[in-house]
Design a protein that fits this description.
It contains 13 helices and 13 strands. With 451 residues, the chain is α/β, with parallel strands linked by helices. The protein has an eight-stranded mixed beta sheet, with helices on both faces. It has a five-stranded parallel beta sheet with strand order 10-9-11-12-13, with helices on one face. Strand 9, helix 11 and strand 10 form a beta-alpha-beta unit. It is elongated. The model has no long low-confidence stretch (mean pLDDT 95). It binds nicotinamide-adenine-dinucleotide.
Length: 451
């Protein structure tokens, strides 16, 4: 007997919501559901996170501790690694990582393992939503078959004739659009795209999300929702590559690309500014487009824009190092043996996230070329071991006039708002600016080498 639960059930109050993966995406979502009055359980495989959450502590800089504490105290939120508790949930939302493996191919092991940990506890009438960014087809081709091993069914169907198709459980995809550090758009203000494996699943997920976001945008399938997220990120990736390439040309032509972009951005329609930088960073933009390139190969299709953008953006850290060498050359110094200070390891300003940060790649190239370097980042007092890089021996050096003057050059890799750029330029011998962070500095412009 299929479930007699109607999709409208998820409009209800005090739902039991399970969030799997309490990271940058899952934790804010969990708190938002708690804020809306639901009973939320955060599931994670990392025992340290579970411990911290239940103690009301935050491990993500922009997520306030007192919010977690408040919902833990009011019993609207708690965390666990006991996946058998999933059987008690009305809705289960999956927010686990989707990285690339060492061959730059999609690593869906986290999503697959999560589906496997839901399957033994899956109950009739539950709603499961995947939020992790992935290629079109993942929900139907990977998650659904694992969940259906439970014996419960959620048939793939679309169109008006399937409006009331019978299901045992509901399954949907709804991409996350979080922009960490963005003070203008928080989770509640950002419209949410939702697609179901069948119409009842779509309606169930719409009902659930309508409680926590200002607008839900329904689409006809999980594949459309999956592809929409990739389009958003590929759009950014390609446009960033375009301005990075134009920057290289502008440098050769003696034209200030930043002034060009600001001038073009004065057009009130048909243009959106993107800015060059030292390379792509973050968990999404450098990674997600390659999920689509990989999937496209199954269809004998080559995603040339993505590959070209990847090529241009990947070359940027090398360009930064070449620029450092050139700037030092003007000062009759070689890169080999030069003492450098790198400002900012986070992948973008004002965040405590260094995943895929171009600074890490710049450090690797500098090391290969024999430069000596230290770093400062107010968000990272020390570095930890990562999958690809190990700078765990490095600590952020204090930033003052005395230390700044020690180095042959200071490289602005991330333009954190807390930096006093005028003071940095005053004290440093040479400044290589990859972010146009020194645009308002008036004194000693001769020390600034734009890159
Ligand atoms: N960070 C962003 O700004 C952002 C924005 C949009 C979309 N996304 C997408 O959201 C997804 C999650 O990203 P994130 O940034 O939150 O990652 P994250 O690494 O911050 O968090 C993932 C969490 O999942 C946990 N986890 C891993 N495997 C698990 C398992 N099998 N069961 C339970 N928990 C498990 C990890 O311990 C971690 O706490 C990714 O697909 C990402 O592409 C991220």
């Amino acid at each position: 007997m299929p479930t007699d639960k109607k999709p409208e059930f998820f409009k209800g109050t005090q739902l039991k919501v399970a969030i799997i993966g309490c990271g940058y995406v899952g934790l804010p979502l969990a708190l938002r559901f708690a804020e809306a009055g639901h009973k939320v359980t955060g599931f994670d495989t990392d025992p340290k996170k579970i411990h911290m959450l239940n103690a009301g502590k935050s491990y993500i800089e922009h997520i306030q501790q007192n919010k977690i504490q408040q919902y833990v105290n009011s019993r609207h939120f708690h965390a666990t690694s006991d996946f058998s508790k999933l059987s008690e949930a009305d809705a289960i939302i999956i927010c686990v990582p989707t990285p690339l493996d060492e061959y730059r191919q999609p690593d869906l092991s986290y999503v697959e393992n999560t589906a496997k940990s839901i399957q033994p506890h899956l109950q009739k009438g539950q709603l499961v939503v995947l939020e992790s960014t992935t290629y079109p087809g993942t929900t139907e081709e990977l998650v659904l078959p694992v969940l259906e091993k439970s014996g419960l069914r959620c048939p793939i169907a679309s169109g008006p004739e399937s409006e009331n198709v019978q299901v045992d459980f509901f399954l949907a995809f709804s991409p996350e659009r979080e922009d960490p550090g963005n003070k203008q758009f928080g989770l509640a203000q950002i419209p949410k795209v939702v697609g179901g494996v069948n119409p009842p699943s779509g309606r169930a997920a719409q009902a659930l999300y309508a409680q926590v976001v200002a607008r839900v945008v329904p689409v006809s399938s999980t594949k459309v929702a999956e592809m929409a997220k990739l389009l958003e990120n590929i759009f950014r990736c390609v446009n960033i590559a375009l301005v990075n390439e134009l920057k290289l040309l502008c440098q050769r032509m003696g034209v200030d690309v930043w002034e060009v972009i600001d001038a073009a951005a004065s057009k009130p329609f048909g243009f959106m500014p993107f800015y060059p930088g030292p390379g792509l960073g973050g968990h999404c933009i450098p990674v997600d487009p390659f999920y689509l390139s990989w999937k496209a190969r199954e269809y004998d299709f080559s995603t040339r824009f993505i590959e070209l953008a990847g090529e241009v953006n990947t070359a940027m850290p090398y360009h930064v190092v070449d620029s450092i060498a050139e700037a030092l050359n003007h000062h009759k110094k070689s890169l080999k043996g030069a003492k450098l200070l790198i400002l900012g390891v986070a992948y973008k300003k004002d965040v405590d996230d260094l995943r895929e940060s171009p600074t890490l790649k710049i450090m690797e190239i500098l090391q290969e070329r024999g430069a000596e370097f230290e770093y400062n980042d107010p968000y990272f007092p020390q570095l930890h071991k990562m999958r690809r890089y190990d700078y765990s021996h490095m600590k952020s050096v204090p930033l003052n006039a005395q230390t700044l003057s020690k180095y042959d050059a200071v490289i602005i890799a991330t333009d954190h708002s807390s930096y006093d750029y005028a003071a940095i330029v005053d004290a440093a011998k040479l400044v290589i600016d990859t972010r146009n962070a020194t645009r308002r500095v008036i004194r000693h412009r001769e020390k600034i080498f734009p890159c």
